[in-house]
Amino acid sequence: MKRVFKTYRELPGFSLAEVLAALTISSMVLVAVLGIYGRAEHSASAVITKLDSSRLVYEVLQRIAEDLDEIITTSSGTEITLENKISTRGYQTAQLIIRKVFYDNQNQEKVFERVVWQASSDYDNDSAGLVLYRGHSGIGLEDKLLDEQKEKWQRELFVPICSGITFFKIQAVKADNFQDKWSSNSLPAAIIVTLSFAEPFKAVTGELDVTDSEKITRTIAIDRTRKIQFNIVRKDDKEQTNEEQTNEEQKSN
Q: Which residues in 154-167 are b (16+ Cβ under 10 Å) and which e?
């Protein structure tokens, strides 16, 4: 009877030192990858936040421009009142009032439509800034949502538009001057609105300000149908002017 003998060959393995080294290298690679991913996610979040805040600013400025275009007309009975001030915590805030009035058969003034844009004077802890409100009142409202009494339509309600504002300024343009306050019966040539949600810094005067690069400004023309005077130069005059300039350049050379 034959006996069968089986031979077993030892398979090569990893030592404890090799396993620890592999785990250490893998951990270092994983930490590096997670760090790169975290920085990329943080950068992407910052870019998205900046784009969202900029989009919100442009939407607010567009809404103010639409209110000015819809209410302000060249006829009498429309007026603008604006005022800028510093809030209790040093934030730049402003108020803009747009009114359209008419006179009834008893020659009494009636407010046809009134829109108010103003930022709160108090600091909002939840949004880390000011809250921007819009008020709409008058007998010519277009947004009568409920079947209520007429007196309730005329009541002015302030609706919060956005929060977290750190800079809100409105100026009136008269000739080449920018005025921080306007209460004249005449209309300004344009309105300049500046808005920002950026992190403020404390100025030398003690007031809070935002860097100019973080401010978004829009100039809104009040009367877009005004006549613009053009100086039309005839072709002969233009050729003569060019010849005179050429002669002067030759003399100088």
A: eeeeeeebbbebbb
